[in-house]
Amino acid sequence: MKTKKLTFIESLMLVAGAGIGTGILTIPYAIDKIGVLGTVIALALAYAVSAVMYLIIADLTRNSEKSEDLLAILDQHLFSGSGKGKKALNLVFLILLVLLLLENLVVYILCAGNVLTDLLGLNDTVTKILFYALASIVIIFGIKGMGVGEKLSMILIGSAVLVLMILSFLNIKGSPNVSFGAPSTVFAVYGLFMFAFSAIFSIIQVCNHIEKKEQIAKAVIGGLTLNATVTIAFTVAVILGSDTVTEIATIGLSESLGIPFVKILCSVLVLFAMFTSFWSSGFAFSDVVGGQFGLSARISWFIATVPALLIAVFLPLGILDYVQIGAGALSIILIIVVLPAYHNAVKKPKEKPLLGKCSGNRVMIAVIAVAMILMAVSSLIPIA
Fold this sequence. Notes:
about 75% helix, mainly alpha, globular
């Protein structure tokens, strides 16, 4: 049966939702620490670097014969040849990719579990399992079901953020910190923004499944812009409406506003933000598993995602710790494999490059590599 394609709006929402989960919850706490001026610098740099990376990944995908998953793409453009060397490179990258995807999924389960525990009063293990079970329903409907789910979820998230902004402006409890902040902390927040904007796997999914290929660039940049807009809008609401900005921003906001339905509204926001991100990473992980072992999509989904549930239940760290670890892991993967693969892919492109004359430019690639190194370093800096 032929898989239904994603519309432009579904594709845009997929890219936006892929990173908005953890970013929308953890960034307000970090921004409250460093101040507005430092945030503007961190945000501008992260947005610019992410926009270029989005188009790099899209061009890499569009110029690949087998573009189903990142490992297949790199197998063509980076792990060429045969023998032990190729097998070793494949294995190293596979391990890095698995660790990154697992870390992403663990974060989403932890965030959702915390919120459900606070809302329902259930044991945190039970709420993590409950979220996982609900999130896994989407596998029944495939990639089109994820696209529709992402669209509906982003509409709900945006509506919730708008209501929270209005309530915060009507009940101002805090004020923005207008300082620049310590340079090291600004770097740390830059890394968080980069992690929140990261959409490697959703971009690949969009390139493979969007109805009109000529809309890829608009979809991925539109998704990044929507992600940034909703995240900043929510951050403003949290800082103005909270007596104290908590590490999970919705908790402090709902307690400070003291309006009964706000807690439910915040919980809905978090759950759907976690669904959008979990779906994108989960499908990407299952694509890798299916490609490696020739398994069906449903079996691959559970093989890929059940370990994340077990880690979230039995090996809990702080959510912010996982997010920063993920930022460092992501930057390493991008530096080591994606950028060189992109350079090889666009030497003789089969599709017109989205970056135009800058496509494959070594100076541009070097600048992006430096930005990724800064992202990796930022993951080692504590935000306190």
